[in-house]
Design brief:
Layout: H1 2-9, H2 19-26, H3 35-43, E1 50-51, E2 57-58, H4 61-77, H5 81-92, E3 120-121, H6 123-130, H7 134-142, E4 152-153, H8 154-168, H9 177-198, H10 203-235
Antiparallel strand pairs: 1-2, 3-4
């Protein structure tokens, strides 16, 4: 009788979640999350949900936390899946790896993000936050450095703030017209590299294209930054 009473007091196991329920929990924080992306992350062996006898995926609370970490590492730290996979492999093995990109001595684990909830600004709010003049924003739009919109996000705010500082150095938006052309060339490289995968019509391939496009863009950014630093080094000689 005592054993039966003790068993009755044990908490019931947490229910497993379907893909739809996982999306309902995570999409408020990650609006771009889709069922195909969840399946893609599973194919990449980043998460391993349970399966019912009928083959349906079922996620536990730990799976949801793991997905939140993976998506945060992608969005907030721009980490490629290979780096995320290696980090999670070390964590799963009981090690305490340094968080990717963290300095020496950093505590392993996700770092708080300043971009977990991106802000939205109308034109007047954007100008006020950036300390920019209406003319500077108009010039940036004319030079195709900023895309006109009814509502702007943190990324546009960062660009406009940079333009304010560049203007103080005598660099105007019109001097940056070549940036748009360079961006289009990089986009062409990415599209060409992903063309074989993009021709596939299944949902998993579409998710893979989106993820790999981000990874290629990140690597191009590394190359571009290195070239600029190298050129600056020559200027200092």
């Amino acid at each position: 009788m005592a054993a039966s009473s003790a068993a009755a007091r044990l908490p019931a196991p947490a229910p497993l979640l379907s893909i739809g329920q996982v999306l309902a929990r995570l999409t408020p924080e990650f609006p771009d999350l889709t069922p195909s992306k969840l399946r893609f992350l599973e194919e990449q062996k980043l998460v391993s949900p349970a399966r019912t006898e009928s083959g349906y995926r079922k996620f536990c609370a730990a799976d949801v936390d793991r997905l939140r970490l993976i998506l945060s590492m992608q969005r907030d730290h721009y980490l490629p899946l290979k780096v995320i996979r290696e980090y999670l492999h070390d964590v799963d093995a009981g090690r305490t790896p340094e968080f990717p990109g963290a300095g020496a001595g950093a505590v392993a684990g996700p770092r708080p993000s300043m971009l977990s909830q991106e802000r939205r600004f109308n034109r007047e709010e954007l100008l006020r936050e950036a300390g920019a003049s209406p003319m500077l924003l108009n010039d940036a739009v004319s030079a195709s450095v900023i895309v006109p919109a009814e509502v702007y996000g943190d990324d546009t705010l960062a660009v406009l703030r940079a333009l304010v500082e560049l203007q103080r150095c005598g660099i105007e938006p019109r001097h940056l017209r070549g940036f748009r052309a360079a961006t289009e060339r990089e986009l062409g490289l990415i599209e060409s590299a992903l063309a074989p995968l993009a021709r596939r019509r299944d949902a998993s391939s579409k998710a893979a294209v989106a993820e790999r496009a981000k990874e290629i863009a990140n690597q191009l950014e590394v190359v571009r930054g290195s070239l600029i630093r190298s050129a600056l080094g020559r200027l200092a000689q």
